[in-house]
Design goal:
Length: 213
Amino acid sequence: MESRSRIIKSHRNRKITMRVIPGHFATNHSHINYCLDFTAVKHTNTMAREAAREMAAEYSNSVPVDAVVCMEGCEIIGAYLARDLARAGFHSLNEGSDICVVTPELNSNGQLLFRDNTQPMIWEKNVILLLASVTTGKTVNRSLECMKYYGGRVVGISAIFSIIDKQQDIKIHPLFTQLDLPDYRSYPFQDCPDCKEKRKIDALVNSYGYSKF
């Protein structure tokens, strides 16, 4: 499977890359024709720093930010994003601010929650929601519902990859879009053309990686 992979460079910053593998893959919400591997951008110091710099530029001179809420293993990017938004010399309303970086817990029922000790970082605070990918919109919707429940005001959504421009009237700022991977497709299970052709699934995937069959 990995022999089919290739590297895609972001149209926004050629130093930011992701690995893509064509095939037949299943997620919790859909079937897709590419496995998107974000390992390098999420877990290497240099690329995570570049990714955060690009994301921070979207929020210069916009609104104050109190917290970055990281989903899907994006904590390293989130820490750099908070640093860039608050650093001196960056054209931002957040210069010198102490911006929190926090991740909700996923309980056994699949619900997102913040414990009592982290809830004050969200309540009545301006929040940037940071995700790995936005394709069907289900994960971002669940995240937005969580922020609303805990009293957070989502002032922006950033993602490594998104095929959706906005969700619930909030603009999404991705590093990679369908312009970078024009033939990317996501299907409901019942509409998947590979399933109809009885092609076996190559791997189960989520934003953390993949597990081959």
